[in-house]
């Protein structure tokens, strides 16, 4: 192996037993002082010309490389990182997933006292490392991340990990476009389907009609086309941006990055999705994977055949190739537009194995639309009431729909909300108790019929307004108890136990909000958040102090994205009280996936594992679904909260979260 190859692989995070701490790349200067002193690193951001696809294009780099150098730290030490901005514009670096003081988090105008790094200046970050695991860093200014300002972080643990391995590789996935990011947004603003290369056309309609078995099927096909046309949406629009070249550690599929192993060794693969807009479905034909870490935190080992990794997520897996054959690791984009890939092999320099055909491209259905959510009045965590911006709410009125035949499996997160269920029929819910729903406002549900709700107790529903519950029939709703629902629009109500995950629209089953349909063959083990159990729970189980509604909204036709109907420029901060446990109820009103990232604090999706619910820094919310996520507000200061689809964040799907001291009670005064 040449010295050039060695330094390149060390920069990508190779570590075997003899290389527990790979030598830092030459660009990362370290002081010749005792280990008690902070270790110091230097990062320089600059404009470069990159040739990724055979065309020379302008890009941005860290220390002259894309991705930037791997930073390898050790838990418990303090680090100093000097970031020199040689760009012609303002910049910043955010340390994704690290628990640190707000002022070191690196988000201009949100992190306490941080306004970014001016062109020509150098900023010094300094913070202790209170955790171990796999993380990454990237610019939090404009669209620089897409242009090449990102890199990986590995923090080695202070104590031995509960699993062993012989080799250790960082696998940093990303998506590259030869277009400038500003042109990408301009194209989406002009035509939201600009990059949808699989649009349904008149020719495809003719083909569908010819294949239809009878007149009823042909009528259904035409009706479906008309419905989607009326919404100005396309069920094949799975990913906003296409034309990407997918990279592994900066390598194209043809360049075939290779992770070398000896037969019988255990290899640790640290997957990081640094893609700006791409979800990847990962599999290794011929090998199973054991997931041992999620988002930097150890989990109880779970063996899978495949997993989906959303933008900003990290998963560490162990693989154990027993023979000397070459394995091709495939990371297929969710929209089936291409592969990121690399080889596991006993030697470098082997050509990539032939790629398999793409799995069928997913197609959205009306079930992915969820419900007509409308204003619900749940706590939104802001000091003042919010007013939805026109054009940001769900694009389809589903009033009059009959949900009477919906199956209701036990467990799981809910797939539907009750707040504005126009025309909803709940069939058989007799015995419903609304005794604590004083002051509830059903103003969006005209004409509700309670006639068949035998045994229902409305004794505490003073002032309730049913004026707009159109056509709602609760029929016989046996045993249902809304007694804990608070004022407003059922604030504080936990729908999790109601098991709405499988509820459908008419004959369509609503997708399970936590299950990833990757197109795997029957019997394949596909990772979901439910499979993740924290190896060492950080927080005890306790009830949230309040439920904060986080509706994911936007307008694909005009290409802007928002939270609770308000873009970042229009919105107030979400205010949490230091020491409280808040529950964010994510309601995705759109037909896009949204990986939601909260800086500075862990998110705990309520997946039924109690104290062992996983600790995640990013939670992917599927189209039309609702997921409850608890947050322990233990980090004072200002924190960014946003969708990690870069162009969604840039066009408005972002908030500031302020963690402030709890208000003093009268007794405390």
TrEMBL record:
Signal peptide as annotated in the record: 1-29
UniProt-recorded Gene Ontology molecular function terms: copper ion binding; oxidoreductase activity
Record-annotated Plastocyanin-like domain positions: 47-158, 224-335, 544-660
Cellular component annotations (GO), alphabetically ordered: periplasmic space
A Pfam family recorded for this sequence: Cu-oxidase_3
Keyword Metal-binding annotated: yes
Keywords linked to the UniProt accession: Copper, Metal-binding, Oxidoreductase, Signal
Lineage: superkingdom: Bacteria
Designated name of the protein: Copper oxidase
Organism: Teichococcus rhizosphaerae
